[in-house]
TrEMBL record:
<feature type="transmembrane region" description="Helical">
    <location>
        <begin position="268"/>
        <end position="288"/>
    </location>
</feature>
<comment type="function">
    <text>Receptor for somatostatin-14 and -28. This receptor is coupled via pertussis toxin sensitive G proteins to inhibition of adenylyl cyclase. In addition it stimulates phosphotyrosine phosphatase and PLC via pertussis toxin insensitive as well as sensitive G proteins. Inhibits calcium entry by suppressing voltage-dependent calcium channels. Acts as the functionally dominant somatostatin receptor in pancreatic alpha- and beta-cells where it mediates the inhibitory effect of somatostatin-14 on hormone secretion.</text>
</comment>
<keyword id="KW-1133">Transmembrane helix</keyword>
<comment type="subunit">
    <text>Homodimer and heterodimer with SSTR3 and SSTR5. Heterodimerization with SSTR3 inactivates SSTR3 receptor function. Heterodimerization with SSTR5 is enhanced by agonist stimulation of SSTR2 and increases SSTR2 cell growth inhibition activity. Following agonist stimulation, homodimers dissociate into monomers which is required for receptor internalization. Interacts with beta-arrestin; this interaction is necessary for receptor internalization and is destabilized by heterodimerization with SSTR5 which results in increased recycling of SSTR2 to the cell surface.</text>
</comment>
<keyword id="KW-0963">Cytoplasm</keyword>
<keyword id="KW-0297">G-protein coupled receptor</keyword>
<dbReference type="InterPro" id="IPR000276">
    <property type="entry name" value="GPCR_Rhodpsn"/>
</dbReference>
<keyword id="KW-0449">Lipoprotein</keyword>
<keyword id="KW-0325">Glycoprotein</keyword>
<keyword id="KW-0472">Membrane</keyword>
<protein>
    <recommendedName>
        <fullName>Somatostatin receptor type 2</fullName>
    </recommendedName>
</protein>
<keyword id="KW-0675">Receptor</keyword>
<keyword id="KW-1015">Disulfide bond</keyword>
<keyword id="KW-0812">Transmembrane</keyword>
<keyword id="KW-0807">Transducer</keyword>
<dbReference type="GO" id="GO:0005886">
    <property type="term" value="C:plasma membrane"/>
</dbReference>
<feature type="transmembrane region" description="Helical">
    <location>
        <begin position="96"/>
        <end position="119"/>
    </location>
</feature>
Length: 384
């Protein structure tokens, strides 16, 4: 989340004061408060309460950052391992999941640096590492969202066009698409690559985006740029894909039997609600803060700063949720995890059932209608 500091470090941000002499109490030199808010505080009790809030929220948020980082790294590393380890896991869909997990792992790696800057209110790692962290962090922020969009398109092709899409839905094509996703993400991320750096402000150094003049115009354009490409457009594509899936399953389910139709509708509805709801829940607050920060509809206060930091944690938490959403809902992933974690010994994961594959191909050649019904009502429809 390489532009999270922009909410506080742009031209509208706080003009801080040190509290070290306030109310006769020695506070940390890094603790700051807006001048207007300080002038409005006439009682030391209110001042101390506000200081306690800032200190407490900083500690809590920093701990949450490290917790999310640990969970995200462990969960996504497990996903990567089982896909690479077991032959039966190397499907088209799982190749997209692998790309998503790699992006999420890299996304998590930048979180400790951001947490340290939050705790110290200072960037101690120098300009080179600042540019690296900012670039990798933002690159994988876009890559993660683009991966979700690609997976939604893949689900659309598998369900709505199961036969026509067979020539496109192959492992080699999936790998090519994954490379294209990284290439597009890199192009979208060029402003971060060019303008990220360290600035000195409020008696400290901060890793952020150093915009050229006019800074306000660049900052505003960047906020809308990331909102449209990093949230709005992917969300529209995801919603459109799953809307088409629901329509297709409902119309096809009537012909293939009531019980299968109900089961298919239930699975698809659950999948759609989880994917869309979690995506919106995790990212919408972050982009709302970004957009409102440039429209001037909110004023920055210490409490709002802490709230925004919680919102940033929520965005990172989406990477923790991805292994659950796209892996634990799959029976093959569950068996693989049980094997790796020594919870249960499940055989057959290293083998590809070639006899079943030959039977499936034969059935597709002899009865395309039956194949389409199977695709619409089987695991291919809802497995992510």
């Amino acid at each position: 989340m390489s532009h999270l500091q922009q909410f506080f470090l742009d031209s509208k941000s706080l003009r801080g004061l040190s509290f070290s002499a306030s109310c006769g109490i020695n506070f940390p030199s890094w603790l700051t408060i807006p001048r207007k808010l300080l002038n409005s505080l006439t009682l030391c009790g209110s001042f101390i309460s506000l200081t306690a809030w800032v200190l407490t929220s900083t500690v809590v948020i920093t701990c949450m950052y490290f917790l999310v980082c640990a969970m995200g790294l462990c969960g996504n590393a497990l996903v990567i391992y089982v896909i690479l380890r077991y032959a039966k896991m190397k499907t088209v869909t799982n190749i997209y999941i692998l790309n998503l997990a790699v992006a999420d792992v890299l996304f998590m790696l930048g979180l400790p640096f951001i947490a340290i800057q939050l705790a110290l209110v200072h960037w101690p790692f120098g300009p080179v590492l600042c540019r690296v962290v900012m670039t990798v962090d933002s690159l994988n922020q876009f890559t993660s969202i683009f991966c979700l969009m690609v997976m939604s398109i893949d689900r659309y092709l598998a369900v709505v066009h199961p036969i026509k899409s067979t020539k496109w839905r192959k492992p080699r094509m999936a790998k090519t698409i994954n490379l294209a996703v990284w290439g597009v993400s890199l192009m979208v991320n060029l402003p971060i690559v060019i303008y990220s750096g360290v600035i000195t402000k409020h008696d400290g150094c901060f890793c952020t985006i150093v915009w050229p003049e006019p800074q306000e115009a660049y900052y505003t354009a960047f906020m809308f740029y990331t909102f449209i490409l990093g949230f709005f457009l992917p969300l529209m594509v995801i919603c459109l894909c799953y809307l088409c899936i629901i329509i297709k399953v409902k119309s096809s389910g009537i012909r293939v039997g009531s019980s299968k139709r109900k089961r298919s509708e239930r699975k698809v509805t659950r999948m759609v609600s989880i994917v869309v709801a979690v995506f919106v829940f995790c990212w919408l607050p972050f982009y709302v803060f970004n957009v409102t920060s440039v429209t001037g509809t909110i004023s920055t206060t210490p409490i709002l700063r802490s709230t925004f930091a919680f919102v940033v944690v929520l965005g990172y938490a989406n990477s923790c949720a991805n292994p659950i959403l796209y892996a634990f809902l799959s029976e093959n992933f569950k068996k693989s995890f049980q094997n790796v974690l020594c919870l249960k010994n499940v055989g057959g994961l290293d083998e590809v059932d070639r006899s079943d594959s030959r039977q499936d191909k034969s059935r597709m050649m002899n009865d395309p209608t039956e194949t389409q019904s199977t695709l619409l009502n089987g695991d291919l429809q809802t497995s992510i």
